[in-house]
Amino acid sequence: MTSTALITCMNSCYSRTTQWLESWVGPFALLLMRLWVAIAFWRAGVVKFTDPASTQMLFDSLYHVPLLAPGIAAVLGTWIELITPWLLGLGIAGRATALFLFIYNLTAVISYPDLWPHGFWSGLMIVGDFTDHKVWAMMLLAMVAWGPGKWSVDGILGKPSRDGIAR
């Protein structure tokens, strides 16, 4: 086998492997990320829903949600955490839902200073400060960038991505 033939063979193999990864591993990874974040928010919503008195106390004393009264923030936060995980998990309006939850997640971190004992900006770089929220934020940004994937309602309905191909 000549070196040209070897390079052509390697390019072909690389191209097929990349295509397979984009077709199967990419959608599977996006599905896992959607479900991971959806379950985290859903569980938080269920806890708030089952104990509204404690939820109200948290919003009255610990959470400092900007621009909203504690009572409104408690009810709104509970229902956001009960409804949007279903949209995210199923991949309905995936990019918009992910962007909304990214902003909601950021608001939650800003509203609860106990999550960042070393300061907000320092906490962004420290592994121990609000790690879950940072991981969720990265997953949500991935979904904003690449959409919910072909294994979603959006993907099944054929919503085109930026390049015109449903993923």
Summarize the structure in short.
The chain is mostly helical and 167 residues long. The protein has helices at 3-50, 52-61, 70-90, 94-111, 120-125, 131-146, 153-157. The longest helix is centred in the first third of the chain and has 48 residues, at 3-50.
Low-confidence stretches are none
Order of helices and strands: HHHHHHH
User: Rg to the nearest angstrom?
Assistant: 20 Å
Q: What is the overall number of helices?
A: 7
* Content of β-strand: under 5%
Inertia-based shape: elongated
Task: Please state the average pLDDT score.
Answer: 90
Terminal Cα span: 37 Å
Report on this structure.
This protein has helices spanning 3-50, 52-61, 70-90, 94-111, 120-125, 131-146, 153-157. The protein has seven helices and no strands. The two termini are 37 Å apart. The chain is 74% helix and 0% strand. With 167 residues, the protein is mainly α.
Features:
167 residues; mainly alpha; 74% helix; 0% strand
What secondary-structure arrangement, pairings included, does this model have?
Blueprint: H1 3-50, H2 52-61, H3 70-90, H4 94-111, H5 120-125, H6 131-146, H7 153-157
Helix pairs in contact: 1-3, 1-6, 2-3, 3-4, 4-6
